[in-house]
Each structure stands twice: as C-alpha cells, then as structure tokens.
C-alpha cells in the first residue's frame, strides 16, 4: 500500500507541486524562503538549504526540496543510504534532482519545546545521543545537530536533519545543547515551567553563531 501511495505522490509532485513551487535561499545562514506553494500543500519546516512540505492526502510522507544553488542533495542521499533503518531517523524513499521524499517523523522540536514550555524528559536526550552514536558507527559524522533538528515524540528522541552528516570537521552544537540542558534547563527552566520567547531564542542563536565563528577564526590564526 505504501508503494502505491508513493507512486501517486510522485505523480502529484511532478504535475502539480513542482510547476507551481518556488523556493529561494536569500542568506545561506538563514532559513530558505518559500515564495510560492500550490494548494493544498503545507510547509513543515525550512532549513538553510531546503524547504520541507507535505500533501494532506499523504501524511506518511514529507517532500524536501533544495533551493537553487544550495549544495547538499547528493550528500544527503548518501547519508540515508549509510544509515539504513533506525527508529530515531527518517528514511529516504525517493530522490531525484534536488528533491527527496522522506518518511514523515511526527513530534515537536526541542526548540519549540523550550518556546512553549513543554517538558523535555532526560530519555529524549539520551536516545538522541544513542542515535548519533549509531550514525558514527555507520561511518558518518553527526553535524549541525541543534534544537531545530531534533524532536520529541511521545517521550522518545528523534533526529530530523542528517544532511550534513558527511562533514568530517568537529561540530560542538549537540554537545553545547546537552550542556545547556543539564546545567540550565533541568535545574532552572523545567522546574519553573519557563517559556523562552522566540525573540530571545533568536538572539541566543545569532550570538552563538557569532562567537562560534569568532572562535574558529582565532583558532585558525594561532595555529602554525
């Protein structure tokens, strides 16, 4: 049955979505902009490289479309091939010309949990850790794992963006998020039921990016 739905969805994508869809990357450090999206398609999310949409008649799938000029499509296909099946990751069911059809993962991102005051159990963090270790064992390098790229569903941890897992350089985003979880979230934010507004989270995001870039430049400068 899934294969029948998948073939029908591919037809709809070719005939209805792609001729009437436009996505643009304005700034490579900010989410892409979806300029046009035909009815009844809906946006699931926007990353720095691509937009993710779904059709309400095919809720078991999402469609990820890369913005023109943005890299990463071939790498993402390779990552999914290496991952195989794992309950914390999606699966790539179709890939062609910058477009992927993925198994849909349901849940709330940890970013949104912080914003909405939804409690994040420690099991979620531990399961994401285990999933990233699994990816490492498959020859991958978990990269760019942050609050918008991991989710919680029924108390379980999920990783929703693996597009940069071929990058070999060290990425500290997940370690920093875990540190904030154990040092700040568990002892203060969670017990008080605090909600962190999007404006403040955006300031934190941009400040983190600035200092991470500054640290990288200083490291390169002082190395012989």
Automatic annotation (TrEMBL):
Cited InterPro entries: Kinase-like_dom_sf (IPR011009), Meiotic_Drive_Suppr_Kinase (IPR052396)
Highest rank taxon of the organism: Bacteria
Protein name, entry field: Serine/threonine protein kinase
